[in-house]
Design a protein that fits this description.
- Helices cover about 45% and strands about 25% of the residues.
- By secondary structure, it is an alpha+beta fold.
- The protein folds into 2 domains: about 1-160, no CATH class; about 175-205 and about 245-385, Nucleotidyltransferase, domain 5 (2-Layer Sandwich), CATH 3.30.420.
- The strands form 5 sheets. The protein has a 6-stranded mixed sheet with strand order 14-13-10-11-12-17. A 4-stranded antiparallel sheet has the order 1-9-8-2.
- α2 (about 45-50) packs antiparallel against α3 (about 60-80).
- The structure holds zinc ion.
Length: about 375
């Protein structure tokens, strides 16, 4: 199975500067692509031909930018075909992650050599970084497929590895499950046997709110300092450290939340999971407050973690459109918003709002429409940490 790990590294000052330069050059490639496409729409092959040999980084790293650009365009196209208003890539960048594909790097002992290829007929000196023991341990006996230089509070390496293991055999059962990802209840799930679980993300939310507050404080202090003063530098460093710490905390909580769900799904012998796909929610709702809330909520991470955690235990995940799943009454089909813990309809139907949403998603997945599937038997609450 493929997996991406992020790692710190050490290197000398000269190589560090060259790494920063790599990401600036990759951004130039990106900007050039935007320019070329604005003139005239070109195919991926044409772009690659036009960019060849122009930049002093590995030719495969240049190709990787083209690949990512084309992938982003395809994603936008499919979103637009589904009626969303996504924009094609347009923003110019100052930095862009540089990627080294399989033959662009070599791991020798604890040293990773990143090749810069040949530029103007001359082979360039590779960049050498040192990996920490914890990363080396993870890399033992696995295949390294790709390395990217990313910004995560500081420069880090994102390494794509393949442990060569097949993913787990598919679970054999007819239990299916619908899940609803949300901000307050992080995950609400309902399985076809009638059990429900609600995993709350209050702690996650409070950590995120605290992070926002701290960020605002730093920005306020920074706005009062002179550019390039010692105090500015000090504050920036402190801000970066704070962000790193909080991000690690958030990542940890996200893992805990998704892991709890997977454990529950395994216990209930779930074979297939339908998840309401909230992609596009962010773009459809224009109100700023809503947008702020959604961006903090970060469902993308939960979806990403669920995807690989579920496939590791042989559970199938299917994304379905969750249009009106929380608002529709499964008995009479009327729609209305729900403002408290229970969803109540004028026809007499009532259910816990989060379980109600998850059950509607299950119904959408199984039958393609919202109706009653199974009565709710058991409801379990889990608070993460
Ligand atoms: Zn009703």
């Amino acid at each position: 199975m493929k997996q991406t790990i992020k790692s710190h590294f050490k290197c000398n000052r000269e190589d560090l500067n060259r790494l920063f330069a790599c990401n600036r050059i990759s951004a130039l490639v990106w900007n050039k692509i935007l320019e070329l496409q604005r003139e005239k729409l070109r195919s991926k092959g044409d772009l690659q031909r036009m960019l060849k040999g122009l930049y002093p980084i590995n030719s495969q790293s240049v190709q990787a930018v083209t690949d990512k650009y084309c992938a982003a365009c395809l994603a936008t196209k499919s979103a637009r075909d589904n009626g969303l208003a996504n924009k094609y890539p347009w923003r110019h960048k100052r930095n862009y992650p540089t990627t080294w594909k399989a033959d662009g790097f070599k791991l020798l002992g604890n040293r990773l050599k990143l090749s810069l290829g040949i530029f103007a007929g001359k082979r360039q000196k590779p960049i050498e970084v040192k990996l920490p023991p914890s990363t080396l341990k993870t890399l033992e006996g696995v295949k390294l497929q790709q390395v990217s230089l990313v910004w995560d509070g500081w420069l880090k390496l994102a390494i794509v590895i393949d442990d060569g293991k097949e993913s787990a055999p598919a679970v054999q059962s007819d239990v299916t499950c619908g899940i609803d990802l949300g901000e307050i209840h992080s995950i609400a799930a309902f399985e076809s046997g009638g059990n429900a679980i609600i995993i709350t993300g209050r702690l996650l939310r409070s950590v995120k709110q605290y992070q926002q507050k701290k960020l605002a404080e730093f920005d306020k202090k920074l706005s009062k300092c002179k550019a390039n003063s010692r105090r500015t530098k000090k504050l920036r460093r402190a801000k970066r450290r704070m962000l790193q710490k909080m991000n690690a905390r958030i990542r940890d909580l996200n893992h805990k939340i998704t892991r709890s769900f997977v454990t529950w799904a395994v216990e209930n012998k779930v074979a297939k999971v339908y998840v309401g796909n909230p992609e596009g929610v962010q773009r459809k709702k224009r109100r700023r407050v809503v947008n702020q809330k959604l961006s903090r909520w970060n469902f993308g991470k939960h979806l990403e973690y669920l995807t690989y955690k579920l496939s590791a235990v042989g559970i199938v995940l299917e994304k379905i459109s969750e249009a009106y799943s929380t608002q529709t009454c499964p008995v009479c089909g009327r729609r209305h918003k729900c403002n408290n813990r229970n969803y109540r309809c004028s026809c007499g139907y009532t259910a816990h709002r989060d379980v109600h949403g998850a059950r509607n998603i299950l119904s959408l997945g199984l039958k393609g429409r919202i109706s009653i599937t199974t009565p709710i038997k058991d409801r379990k609450y889990l608070r993460t940490a």
